Amino acid sequence: MTAFAACLFAVAAYVSAHVIAASWLRHAGAARALQAQLRECTDTVALGWKVVERVPLPALSMLRKDRSVRPRRQSQWTVAERPGLEWPEYGAELAA
Questions:
Q1: pLDDT tens, position by position, for the chain (96 residues)?
Q2: Is the pTM above the cut of 0.85?
């Protein structure tokens, strides 16, 4: 199976090299002529750049008066009150 995979890799590499060479031959003349075409072009294009600053929007629930405000999650718990975050007894030595 390794020899088969190596043959497939070699065929893929050959096909890839062939496609790259064919595209170079097909587009080489246009690529060389592009620099001359740009030198001959007398028209100019003015580009104007604008920056849009994003500002955080308030939550939609605060804007709607017909909905009651949901209670906040238990993010104000202390580390000792959070469930599932205690070190096991044997893990305390490993953490130190």
A1: 799 999 999 999 999 999 999 999 999 999 889 888 888 887 777 778 888 887 777 676 666 666 666 666 656 666 666 666 556 666 555 555
A2: no
The Cα–Cα gap between 79 and 25 comes to 67
CA atoms within 13 A on the CB side of 88: 3
Contacts of 67 (CB under 8 A, 6+ apart): 61
Q: Write the DSSP symbol of residue 76.
A: T
Q: Tell how many helices (H) and how many strands (E) occur in the chain.
A: 3, 0
Residue with tokens 């044997």: 90
Contacts of residue 32, defined as CB under 8 A and 6 or more positions apart, other chains included, come to none
Amino acid at 48: G
Reduced to 3 states (helix: H, G, I; strand: E, B; else coil), residue 40 is helix
CA distance 96 to 91: 9
